[in-house]
Amino acid sequence: MKDRMLVFAGSYAEASDFGVYVYSLDEITGALTLLHQVSGLKNPTFLHLDAEKLKLYSISEEEADGGKAGGAVSFRIDPVQGTLTEINRRMSVPATTCHIQKDDSDRFLIVTSYHGGMVGLMALEEDGRIGETLDVRQHEGQGAHPERQTQPHPHSSFFSPDCRYLYVPDLGIDRIRAYTLDAERQKLHVHGDTVLHAGAGPRHMVFHPNGKFAYVINEIDSTVTSFRYDPETGALHTFDTVSTLPAGFAGENICAEIAVSANGTYLYGSNRGHDSIVVYAIDSNSGRLSFVEHVSTEGRHPRHFALTPGGRFLLAANRDTNNIATFRVDETTGKLQFTGHSIEASKPVCIQAAYFSVSQ
């Protein structure tokens, strides 16, 4: 057997157009090669990859009762051919969604609705088939920003390393809401809130591999906030906030994705406006961040990026220039170097990558 790196991309697209793409990654050159593309989904803008089970899950935009609603779609992955076959699709919540996440037990999917201000829990069958929506939790409130925070805007959901808690950064109310998942009753229960500084706009978060620290990237004010994680209580204790932008930058900017290297040494975040990846070194004892560099994403509006398994490459999805650019990662310094390879893709906004074993 040998391993093959496959890369999956979601995008903004009409249902009649291609919206989900499958690529192979050449780990010598960093070049991407298109293997398959799927149509039939409107705005499959976020994907969740379960490489072990050969499954891919996507959000989609559906029409319901004259309005827009969320949908969830499951695919079976053929790692040899690099193709996707749809398993099924279901309506999720009564508003469009922006994020999808699977729980560790493989029994549930969690979808997040930015425009609807809600989080939905969906059933997941053993064969990857998506079941009914089991529970929906509505957020309330508003934040300090007069335009961006007039209502709740939950943007994503992430499980703690021990899977005891589900954290939902809410851009609209400057809070990270923690839930517990009651598997027996198939319900989400509010556990508590972590309050961020006014006008932050928390979007995505990531836990450090050591399980002691967590980091959230704040979309509105272009910062990263650091937390100490208490696994007993589920509390996130804020201890630092740093800017994602260079000193003196006066242009408009909003942040998007955040990731930590597998060895826990470096953290990466994307800037839309400055159109860069910011790189920080992580102090192993304190968890504090120190600036390393800014690197152009070789395009505009990097809404998402991904570090490949093994950490040798970073792939940046540039929505407004319709391209995915690949960068080599220096494991010693954390710095990025553009490989010279960039592949055209229509409005790419999500990247997922994994190794798959295929027969020789």
Biggest β-sheet, characterized? Answer: 4 strands, antiparallel
Q: Indicate the multimeric state.
A: single chain
Mean pLDDT level: 97
Shape: globular
State the helical fraction.
under 10%
**How many individual β-strands?**
28
| Tally of separate helices | 0
Strand content: over 45%
* Uncertain residue segments: none
The H-and-E topology, N to C, reads as: EEEEEEEEEEEEEEEEEEEEEEEEEEEE
Question: What structural category characterises the helix and strand content?
Answer: mainly beta
What is the terminal-to-terminal distance? 5 Å
Rg computed from alpha carbons, rounded to a whole number of angstroms: 19 Å
Strand order within the widest beta sheet: 3-2-1-28
Describe it for me?
The protein is mainly beta. Helix content is 0%, strand content 57%. It contains no helices and 28 strands. A four-stranded antiparallel beta sheet has the order 3-2-1-28, with no helix packed on it. Strands 4-5-6-7 form a four-stranded antiparallel beta sheet, with no helix packed on it. The radius of gyration is 19 Å and the shape is globular. The termini are close together.
Give a summary of the structure in a few sentences.
The protein has 360 residues and is an all-beta fold. It has strands at residues 2-11, 18-25, 32-39, 47-50, 55-64, 67-78, 83-91, 99-102, 108-113, 118-124, 130-138, 158-159, 166-170, 175-182, 187-195, 202-207, 213-218, 223-229, 236-243, 254-260, 266-272, 276-282, 289-296, 302-307, 313-318, 323-329, 336-344, 348-358.
Supply the key terms:
57% strand, single chain, 0% helix, 360 residues, 4-stranded antiparallel beta sheet, mainly beta
